[in-house]
Amino acid sequence: MYKVQTVENAVEAKKEIDMFTSEGYTKDDIYVFAHDKHRSKHITEATNTESTGIKEQGILESMGNMFNSRGDELRSKMKAVGMNQAEADAYEEELDKGKLVIVASKEATNNNAKPF
User: Fold this and answer.
1) Model pLDDT, residue 115
2) pLDDT (mean) for 82-110
3) What is the pLDDT of the chain when averaged over all its residues?
4) 70 in helix, strand or coil?
5) Residues 65, 109, 75, 10, CA torsion sign
6) What's the sign of the alpha-carbon dihedral 29, 47, 34, 115?
7) For labelling alongside 116, which of 16, 18, 54, 87 has CA 20 to 30 A away?
8) b/e per residue, 2-26, with b = 16+ CB within 10 A?
C-alpha cells in the first residue's frame, strides 16, 4: 500500500512528509520526486527521506536508468515504489509542471530486489 501527494514546493513537501510520518510511515518509506535531479536530491537530503535506488529497483533497472530520459527514469522509479504504469505516467506529467510528488510506500522497502 502506498499514498501519494503532489505539492508545489519544499515547504508543502515537509508538511506532507510530517503527515505521512504521523500516519506510521518512517522516513525510509517516504520518497520525494522532482523533475530536476538537483531539486530532488536537495529536498530528499533536507527532509531526510529515502531516494530510490538498487534496493527498490534492482541492479538491472538501476543501471538501465543511466541510459533513459529523465521522464523514463522517473516513471521507472515511481513504479519501483508501487505505482502501476498509468499512475507513473500521470504523476510524471505533474512533475513536468514543476510540482513535487511525495510517495509513502511500504511496498518499496519490502521489494527485496535481487541483483541477479
Assistant:
1) 30
2) 88
3) 79
4) helix
5) negative
6) negative
7) 87
8) bbbbbbeebeebbebbeebeeeebe
State the pLDDT at residue 66: 53
All three cell numbers of 97: 509542471
The tens digit of pLDDT for each residue in 25-74 reads 998 888 899 888 788 788 888 887 766 544 444 455 445 545 557 788 88
C-alpha cell at 61: 533497472
CB 103 within 8 A of CB 3: yes
Helix axes 10-22 and 37-47, enclosed angle (nearest 10): 50
Rounded to the nearest 10 degrees, how much is the dihedral formed by the CA atoms of 57, 94, 4, 60? 0
The structure's pTM equals: 0.75
Q: How far is 56 from 52, CA to CA, in rounded Å?
A: 6
